[in-house]
Amino acid sequence: MEVLKVDKLTIAVINGPNINILGKREPQHYGNETWDNIEERLKKLACKLKIELLLYQSNHEGDIVDFIQNNMEKVNGAVINPAAFTKHGYSILDALTASDIPFVEVHLSNIYSRGGWHADSIFSEKAVGVIAGFRGFGYEMGLNSIIDFLSLIKGE
Fold first, then answer.
1. Per-10-residue mean pLDDT for the chain, 156 residues long?
2. What is the C-alpha to C-alpha distance for residues 21 and 84, in angstroms, rounded to an integer?
3. 93 vs 75: CA distance, rounded Å
4. 81 is in an annotated binding site
5. pLDDT of residue 24
6. Inter-helix orientation angle 90-99/61-71, to 10°
7. Is 71 known as a binding-site position?
8. Which of 29, 60, 107, 118 is labelled catalytic?
9. Of 29, 30, 60, 118, which is the active-site residue?
10. Would residue 56 show up in a list of annotated catalytic residues for this protein?
């Protein structure tokens, strides 16, 4: 796994379907917080950590693949919430694997306690780590985790 040698890390935060309607959608699982609120917290954390973020959300699998392919030379790592693509988003997983970008998988709800199709992730085996069940705070945990991982493999 090769990590870009740059002064400032760039991390992609990638979201799958329906993350754009957080706060309105099944608050018993995802909470009442909107994606805009989570995004603002991530931007503040990025400033504090002196890293650059590329934030992306799409309801369309091919668009996510295009984003990964178009940015794979620009990013050091990624935090991804595949959302409804968790079980069947093979083209997204293939793009991540082909890019050799280390990534942390994040889920707002605890997909393992929910059972059924929610508990089956094709991404987990390839992810550096999986964070689930902490709602919006999982993204901050994911961001800190991928940065720590990149520091470890870089030898810092």
1. 61 98 76 91 96 98 99 98 96 98 94 65 97 96 98 82
2. 13
3. 16
4. yes
5. 84
6. 0
7. no
8. 107
9. 30
10. no
Question: Does the annotation list 110 as a binding residue?
Answer: no
| Six token digits for residue 101 | 């970008």
Q: Do the strands 52-57 and 77-81 form a parallel or antiparallel pair, or are they unpaired? A: unpaired
List the strands of the sheet with 103-107, edge to edge. 52-57, 10-15, 77-81, 103-107, 129-132
User: Tokens 């993204």 label which residue?
Assistant: 139
Active-site residue flag, 30: yes
Tell me the domains of the chain and their CATH numbers. Answer: 10-154 (3.40.50.9100)
- What pTM was estimated for this model as a whole? 0.90
> Is 109 annotated as contributing to ligand binding?
yes
- Hey, which bits of the chain come out as E strands? 10-15, 52-57, 77-81, 103-107, 129-132
